[in-house]
Write a structure and sequence with these properties.
Blueprint: H1 20-29, E1 33-41, E2 50-58, E3 74-81, H2 82-87, E4 89-96, E5 109-115, E6 135-140, E7 147-151, E8 154-155
Parallel strand pairs: 1-7
Antiparallel strand pairs: 1-4, 2-3, 2-5, 5-6, 6-8
Length: about 160
Amino acid sequence: MATRKRGPTRRVRSAAAGSWIALVAATMLGDAAEALRAEVRADDLTGGGFYRLVVQSYDTHDGHVPGRNARPVGSLQRAVTADELRNGVHVSLLEMREAALGSPSGPPMVLAWIEAAGPDLEFDGRAARPSPGSVYGMAKRRLAGGVLQISLNRKLLV
């Protein structure tokens, strides 16, 4: 009796786990697009008013805040309040990679920070970088699904 040969296994992602734009991107771009879900929280934040929350994902990192020349594969910005940050803000962003690269090539990471202002006119915050005094947090990006937890518990000095 002949046995059936199986081809290489392929990781299946659920585009529905992200947003409608992630579903469209996964349909159009295949493995070059992936959704990332995270919860950003700042427990020690005092004061009121609006903050600009920026979240960016990178394929590789060296443990430091990326410089101006680093290119995020996914990013978003939105206005949040101190109360929302204390309770945890859920975000979903779309990561866009070069089709030839596919999955991350190194230890991936997600960077989030807040600034005392609302979002600017840049749509997704891709070119934004934290300024000195910004409260930020970093987390290693898991390759499996789920919600990544990011705690804003550091202050950028330089």
